[in-house]
Amino acid sequence: MAGLRFTPRKWFALAVVVLATVAAIWFFYFRTDDATAVRARLREAVAFAEKQPKGSGFNLQSAGAAHSLGDFFTEETDIEISGQSHGQTYTLSAATRAQVISAYFLMRPLLTSLSVSLAEIEVDFHDAAHDAATVKCSAMATGTTQNADVFREGRLITAEMIREDDGEWRFRSLRADPVVSFE
Amino acid sequence: MSNNEPPQEESSTFVRPKKQKDWRVVAIRIGVIAAATVLVCLFILRPMVINGESMMPTYSSRGFTFAFLPYFKLYQPERKQVVILKHAGFNTFLLKRVLAFPGETVEIRNGVLYVNGSALDEPYVKNGCDWNFSRREVPAGKIFVLGDNRSMPLQNHMGGMIDKSRLAGVPIW
């Protein structure tokens, strides 16, 4: 087939195109700048907060998940999670990491399953050193309660994150507001 | 070979390449149509399944519609218009009715919505309610939305102020 007979010049052009494609894929998906690291950390925290149906109850799995999730918070954290539209607000002010762990450990058995997807993640660094950032995103939580009620709720997340001495990004504050609210 | 015989070699030469070309053209057409359909469904007319009863009886749960996404790039929202709002993520939207704009006051007394102190005529609300909601102003950059079904308690109804930037489109029916 005449069309597949490549001259050296064509081979060179093909190599350039392939390299440019690989570079573009790396640049957009695999490069690890600070904003990407913050996004990855956020997704990692969500993965620990999620729950599969088989891990119900107060058990070692719940304790492990709660302890792992606790590592995503600083030693003093403010958490404020508002209910739907007109509901109550769950507040945890100046909570220690141990309090965050125990709060999640107590809440987890109330849910049979929990899945969270994040979108529209915006990272805004406070300083040139990129050691602190405000992160905004929308989150959709779906799952079932122990009473077999299915829920599907959206929230707008605003988080203050800082990079601590060990290089890990942690939440200094976490706020979840309803997308639509009477207030 | 007599001169009256048909030129068989010539006719067979033309038939084979034409068949190959037809197959490729059909494949290309299918590809172009599939790509165009995906692009139209993602950015212009997005198919949506309605899940929930907050817009009944105007829209029933498990209904189906298309969202016309470029609408709010061309027009401003109007009062009583049914709109589609981004909820969270890219796959969940809210279907609500726009009732008030920034700077206007809203209040609900015994189930009647007052905008700037005047009762709003809402023929699409078929089931009355006893909601009460104290007077407040719609902040800048927000709009006030409610569903048509107000048979549930106010705290179970997803409605209120929402960022205008979350307007995603309008249902086409």
Overview of the structural elements:
The complex is a heterodimer of chains A (183) and B (173). With 183 residues, chain A is of the alpha+beta class. Chain A has a single domain, classed as Nuclear Transport Factor 2, Chain: A (Roll), CATH 3.10.450.50. In chain A, 33% of the residues lie in helices and 38% in strands. Chain A is elongated, with a radius of gyration of 22 Å. In chain A, 22% of the residues are buried. The mean pLDDT of chain A is 85. Chain B is of the alpha+beta class and 173 residues long. Chain B has 2 domains: 7-43; 47-171, Umud Fragment, subunit A, CATH 2.10.109.10. Helix content of chain B is 23%, strand content 32%. Chain B is built from 2 helices and 11 strands; from the N terminus they run αββαβββββββββ. Chain B has helices at residues 8-43, 71-74, and strands spanning 45-49, 64-68, 82-88, 92-100, 105-109, 112-115, 118-119, 133-137, 142-146, 160-163, 167-171. In chain B, the strands form 2 sheets. In chain B, strands 1-2-11-3-4-9-10 form a 7-stranded antiparallel β-sheet. In chain B, strand 3 and strand 4 form a beta hairpin. The radius of gyration of chain B is 27 Å and the shape is elongated. The model of chain B has no long low-confidence stretch (mean pLDDT 88). At the A-B interface, strand 3, strand 4 and strand 5 of A face strand 3, strand 4 and strand 10 of B.
